[in-house]
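Please, structure for the following, as tokens.
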Amino acid sequence: MPQLDVSGQRATRDGILRFDQSGSCGMRLKLLGIENTTDDHIQGTKLWILHLGILECDDGWFIRAANASSLSNPNPVSKRRRLVMLGILIEHPTEGLILYETGGGEDYPNLAGTHVQDVFSRVDYDKSMNLDEQIALTGHKIEDVKMVIIGHLHLDHSGGLDHFRGKNIPVYVHELELKHAFYSVATKTDLGVYLPHYLTFDINWVPFHGAYYEIAPGINLHHAPGHTPGLTIMQVNLKESGTWIFTSDQYHVKENFQDSIPQGWLARDHDAWVRSHQMIKGLQKRTNAKVLLGHCLDTIKELGVDFAPTTYK
């Protein structure tokens, strides 16, 4: 039988198995991504929350059975909701400037088309919400970005990838998301939420694989399928403000996360969504993380966090 080398480490599908000497038992096992703590932060990492515009949509897209009629109320009022589009900018001491998601892009209404703009309507937009303008609030330029991470490739999270066409900037996305997005556009099976103008061959796509990926010291990606096959949440461990979890559209609004109410018409794989929900709830409990949802203005207010230029360390 091979001997276990407790001084080393070996890769697994979900991360790294690390072994060290501690306690009376003489060995402690830590499976990164399963038993993550906030100890793996890197001194000097900074984070900004970018405001990339407001969408107004029917509640039925985001909350299971919202606005549904009944025998006693066959014509209920169709409640609508205002949602924020977010980007997350990270200044990392060894990896440089990292961008998580890009919003819908400056020309969202025209590129999305009349029907999509009517359903997922961008409202009250001004130039200050452009991706490059938001990055400028942090003291950086969009040209300074060294790495892009995409939680999922729907148009309101990836439309800003136009800025990175023809560049050699790596754009990280889960392999299942990349395959599904290109397939959906090519076959027109899910066209509308995925659009061809940013799914191009002149972007430096870098797929990652499996359930967990430590993309940089203190920055961990977790595969969370359900809303889309390759959706990925991002965990960032900061020294002063602690752990943050950015969920992309695993959760659109607080009812999805706080009350465990599944998504509405935008749901794809319900069983996978439930499993991802359980994983994120456990991760949040272990790390005492602040959880920022994909579009929820209420959650941002409840957490008391601010948009750029406010800096978190």
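The radius of gyration is 20 Å. The longest strand covers residues 46-58.
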